[in-house]
Amino acid sequence: MSDHALAGGVRAKPTGWWGMALFVATEATLFGTIFGTYFYLRFQDPAWPPRGVPEPEIVVPLVLALVLAATSVPIHGAVRSARAGRVSRARWLLVLAVVVQVGYFAMQTSQIEDDLARFTPQGSAYGSIYFTMLGAHQAHVVVGLLLELWLLAKLVRGLNRYRLVALRSTAFYWHFVNVLALLVVAVQLSARA
């Protein structure tokens, strides 16, 4: 269940992990573009957010992002447990992460709906990039949840090398999504500055 050993004792990452790393790199590029667009538009418009659009809230988005980021702890614990052969513990840690992440998704969806009641993507460049950024992040949360649910279904049948690589790759993806949540909130709250 360990990585392939290469000459000289160097360990190589499995191909599945590298596939996820490339996927994460493309998604990081996507968000780099979204963040770049946000700041380009912000510096072109002296009123950001525009008149009639309320400034973003601070407390709820920040707490939600921190709660989501905290799910990296049980996910990392699940990987460590699986590596040690404690499959049941790995499953429970993964279930804990999923429950918190589903709660995050529900609360964030409610926040987006509240924002949509106050302003729309069609109303201004701010609204357009704001909802694009939040929507893209929510889509990444959904993908992560689907990966975890698929993985939990596979882990019911036990652990093998393939499933361990899938767990490590899914953990890598979630660490990315969690860091991304913090960046999205930082960009979102930058409108208050």
Would you kindly provide a written description of the structure presented here, covering whatever features stand out?
This protein is mainly alpha-helical. The chain is built from six helices and two strands. Strands 1-2 form a two-stranded antiparallel sheet. β1 and β2 (11-12) form a beta hairpin. α1 (15-44) runs antiparallel to α5 (125-155) and α3 runs antiparallel to α4.
Any descriptors?
2% strand, 193 residues, two-stranded antiparallel sheet, disordered N terminus, mainly alpha
The main β sheet shows up as: 2 strands, antiparallel
The amount of beta strand, in percent, is under 5%
Strand elements, count: 2
Query: Radius of gyration, Cα only, in angstroms?
Result: 19 Å
Task: State the shape.
Answer: elongated
Q: State the low-pLDDT regions, or none.
A: 1-7
> What's the helix-strand series?
EEHHHHHH
> Count of helices?
6
Between the first and last Cα atoms, what is the distance in angstroms? Answer: 49 Å
Mean pLDDT, all residues: 93
Order of adjacent strands in the largest pleated sheet: 1-2
Helix content: over 70%
Structural class: mainly alpha
What is the topology?
Layout: E1 4-5, E2 11-12, H1 15-44, H2 59-70, H3 72-83, H4 87-118, H5 125-155, H6 161-189
Helix pairs in contact: 1-5, 1-6, 2-4, 2-6, 3-4, 3-6, 4-5, 5-6
In a few lines, what is going on in this structure?
It is built from 6 helices and 2 strands; from the N terminus they run E-E-H-H-H-H-H-H. The protein is mainly alpha-helical and 193 residues long.
